[in-house]
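Thread: Modeling a multi-component assembly for a lab meeting

Hi all, long-time lurker, first post. My supervisor asked me to bring a structural picture of a complex we are working on to next week's group meeting, and I have zero experience with this. I have the sequence lines for every component (890 residues in total). Could someone generate the structure of the whole assembly? Inputs are pasted exactly as I received them:
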Amino acid sequence: MAKAAVDNNIKELEKKQQWWWAAEKKRSKRLDYLRKAMWKKGAIGGIYPAGLQVDLEQGILHTQAGRAMEMAPDPWVVKYAKIFAHYLDNKTIFITDNSQLVGYVGSLPHTINWNPTVATILNAEVITDTTALPEPLDESLKVINDVIAYWSQKADADKLIPVADISDVTKILSGTIGWGVPMPRGGYSGKDYEFIMTGKRGFADVIAELDEKIDKADAQAHEPIANLEQMPLYNKMLNWEGMKITLEACIRHGQRFARLARIIAENFETDNKRKEELLQIASCCERVPAQTPRTLQESLQYDLFIQLFSRAEAIEGAWPSRPDYYHGPYYDKDVNIDKRITKEEALDLVGEFLIRAAEVSQYKPKWLREGLQGIEGTWVWTIGGVNQHGDDACNDMTIALLQAARLVRVSNPTFGFRWHPRVKEEVLRECFECIRQGLGYPSMRNDPLLIANSLHWHKHPIEEARTWVHQACMSPCPTTKRGFQSMRMANATANCAKIIEYVFTSGFDPVVQMQIGAETPDCATFTSYDQVYDAWLLQMKTIFSTLVRIVNYSRFVAQIYTPRPFLSGISERSVESGQDVNDPSISQGNSWITAFTWVENIDSLAAIKKLVFDEKKYTMAQLKQAITDDWQGHEEMRLDFVRNAPKWGNDDDYVDSIMLKCLRDCAAFSHKLQDPMGNTWPILPENVSGNIHYANVVGALPSGRRRGDALYDGGISPGPGLDKKGPTAVLKSCSKIDHITDGRAFLLNQRLSPTQLAGEKGFPLWKAYMETWYNLGLDHIQFNCVSDETLRSAQREPEKYQEVIVRVAGYSAHFVDISRKTQDNIIQRTVQGLVA
Amino acid sequence: MPFCKECKKFFPIKGDPSNGDCVERVVDPRQAFYKAKPAVAEKDASSCSSFEKK
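Re: Modeling a multi-component assembly
Sure thing. I ran the full set together rather than chain by chain. Output:
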């Protein structure tokens, strides 16, 4: 088709808001190939898509290495480093046609990586869920059995659980109040990007630093006169040795890719242009990770390698990063200064970088897949913001990332944009285009406010706080020596709807038939709202404490049971000190409690206060009976609680004051709960798709919700369809919260009309709304901008709408990859009309 | 008995010819790629289903 015809076709598609088809026509042939070559890894309704296979290679290689060292005298940190090295030295590698970046977490493009060293509970699920096991099944099962048997009692959780408080473990594993299995190497690890990504050192430089440290310590340890200063040196030398082993293996792994690229170029490839590209890949992988990058391609490859190596060591549920900040200088050098590549060529690299991240997959149990429908993990990349001096940090790479996102339209990674008053309009326009074109990202984050929040809660120095990235979906975390958080277990995720539910059951959980919460008095005897609230407060403290205790304990013992030699090797604090990266004494701390299903508490308390105690229409005994009966036989009463009780999100002080009281009492408690670094545990209301996952686990609630109904979509977002007073009322309710001192961050979902944002009027309208959002002091907002009509059509004919993306909660997903219940929940959200 | 070093897919490492890479072309339902696994030159390849004599 002639170019003019193609352009017209694109315009037509864009006019019809068929962004996904327009993108297909706009992107380069290379990006089109790579985008379509990608195997989507996100589970659909908890089930892995057809064609994917659990990768047995890491299990086999780890078991092989583990067995070979059974009798070796090495301590665990060194053994584990050698197991890691054996894996990188022997795993299958591949180079996809047309690609310029290489490396994958598994052995083949369609595989889901499985690391058997993390938890037997996880391993057991691999063998019981046969939907994604490679054929022939008998052979796979034989291998898996062998691997599981070997790692039983050696895996992280197996070592941790027996020494933790078994009562807490049982409550957590019941799946009612929290999320996750206690796995120190299964969570969200930040990175010390200021150490490893600023072009000051590559892995070979770190190895040289480690050699110096080891030599010096060795000399001290062998001084002829015994002294106490020698004592800590033995452990330090072992840690340094572990770091060195892993970093050397990483360099060799890069060289394996270089060799493969040369073999293809010299023996198979007939196209001269592709030959050149392959030789470029070879040169790139000979350079990084051993040495510092020189070009954008090397910088992206270096970053990708770091992420993949980290995933060879641990299960990473998130991807904390700041790609514009760290790759921006290389983009500028290549495109603007040296002009060695064009903008279009840079866009190809950036687009491929997104694709390489989107395809990463590590095996997760079904309950976790249900909570992260349609995606593999929460890769929320941070862009925009200020630098350490407080100046605008946006650059051409920021724009390239936003443009590339619209071309490749992957649902993961997504971006969180650090908004501040000095962001240039052209950058904001790019953000707006992504939102208008239905990507659901970037989420918008209030940069000055969140920097102040980091100072308040975790006392990070301001220059460090300014480096912040999203550690998972929402929580800011610096990328500095002491500031970055090396371990965050998902266990500190509270299913908060249980707080109000347990007020009615005196802490007994009817689903799992266990006493999980506090044994508060029978609520039928309550004669005042204060008694209800006191019971709520005690349940909150009990649940939060149960969750926090296990994470704290895991952090205390992680350095012993679950060292991370690779992550330590790329962290200044460990290279300098010889201590494992998770050692609390060398870390500032950046803990938070993720508060799923939070607003249910507020609407429920408001309903109780108004209908039981203010208007005295019902007694607590009647309400308890209705809740116990799951509202069955009490429909008229239920509708009263739905329709006639005030709801959060309508600028109604009655209910909004309850929100503030709850948050402030939580905040006071957060200061008492300490993490092993001596820092606080603020709460962070958000949800991923926990509102659907927990729908059958949470019983009836005074908000009028029945068991099985989807919970609210999370954070401080009003219940779907319950925000009836328009977008400004939502913002005003949310602005009553102090987004610095009341919690760590607060997720707000909003739906906007694509029709309203169409054309030239769209951007000023959105920008004015965003300025209101900023001036009201909210820390977060994210948008869905896909019409009901499109979403309904996608439900009817999913095959035609494979590429429609929606914002679920702290992440985006392809609409067809999420469950019907989640789809309906998104459609039910109020579409806000903006006023010019 | 065939050895890996006699296979078309075996590529020795420069300076270390006893070790190399087994390189194969793969076309899966979505993409085409080359894959590599470490291989030992003197390894018995008689049970290897993808062995191709040079």
